[in-house]
Known about the structure:
Elements: H1 2-9, H2 15-48, H3 63-85, H4 88-91, H5 96-108, H6 116-134, H7 145-152, H8 155-179, H9 184-213, H10 222-248, H11 251-274, H12 282-320
Amino acid sequence: MATHSWRDTYKGMSSDNIKGLVLALSSSFFIGASFIVKKKGLKKAGASGVRAGVGGYSYLYEPLWWVGMITMIVGEIANFAAYAFAPAILVTPLGALSIIISAALAHIILRERLHLFGILGCVLCVVGSTTIVLHAPQEREIESVKEVWDLAMDPAFLFYAALVMTTVFILIFHFIPQYGQTHIMVYIGVCSLVGSLSVMSVKALGIALKLTLSGMNQLVYPQTWIFTLVVITCVLTQMNYLNKALDTFNTAVVSPIYYVMFTSLTILASVIMFKDWDRQSPTQVVTEMCGFVTILSGTFLLHKTKDMADGLQTISRNSKHSEEDGFGDSDGIPLRRQDTLRTT
């Protein structure tokens, strides 16, 4: 009886969820690496031109930045495909793995030291991700992009979208000119809010393409192209402000804070639009939330210990009056604007 009950509770993941899981995992590897490559490109561009953090676009002429950009695009394509097969509650939290990749590569390439407790944070991210994977809801059966459009036109989601857009405009036109260079939450807030809408549109577009490839052409519906326009607009906005955040603040701080805000808002948007939790028991919902909190704890621990390590390294370098590694001018105070000799 006990074995039968266990099997009833854990019937296994559907084939679509497995495809989404594999795509999401590969996406995390590409995106995690792209953060580091883009950071290196931004540093090189900033040494010979106007930094992105103060409005410059010299990084567009830097090949290394483009390598990072292409790597991120590959990761985003895999992520895009994952949303077509699996619910956002499964796909989005797996982005925590990109933080682990980013932290490990930052330790090796950017010399941003990874503490022992940072490793513990990585472990917590893996545990939390595994918990969510094992209890993720099955993907909602959708037969037309019109059905997704009806979900988007639900009053609850329309209210959420209006609230997000209002907040984004306030951040861009009021807070960024005053606080963008000193408060990391301003840039990250824009990226995360816009990102929650882009994921919903990406999921809708992914479903439309999946249905089209299966023989049910969705490209004839105007809703498909509306979702495409929203995706393009949101992605360009995210890319612009994420570049500013990466160039202005420490990579080890940008990555986890962006992940936490982006994931939280995306899950909220998905619950409102696709009503994922309506197909789950209270136990499954609580377990997923515990997994998510575990991931949040891991990212917080990772970034706090990274902050401590960077501070110790900066003090050590200053006491020895050493500039041997060439990174002493930009990564010492991760939560504030990086000091630079460049005038604006």
